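Give me the fold.
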Amino acid sequence: MSSIFTKIVNKEIPCYKVAETAKFLAFLDVNPNTKGHTLCIPKQEVNKIFDLGSSTYLELMDFSRTVAIALEKAVECKRVGMSVIGLEVPHVHVHLIPLNTMEDAQFIKKETLLPEEFEVLAKKIASFL
């Protein structure tokens, strides 16, 4: 069965897209730790990050870096943190989280945004790519 992220890649489920290449997709997390929390995924459905081929892994890290740099320009924060946990969805995903405190990285507190706010934010981040 396809993961929810594969359904997003296949456009069966909408997302707030930030960036896309032939191999990768970045979109806003709809249950974000902080405003701007972005997920970077390979389009290929692979469950665990270390099961990616070496070149795909490195390309994902490079893609994530590019998105993180744009994210830091678009959202006021002290830095952008990166986390790869991936227990909720069996599809590799890199969390890019704007951080102002260590609590922002703990996946406990969540932000609530309206659909219009997500749309504006995705476009703003994309404008820095």
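The helical segments are 4-9, 54-74, 115-127.
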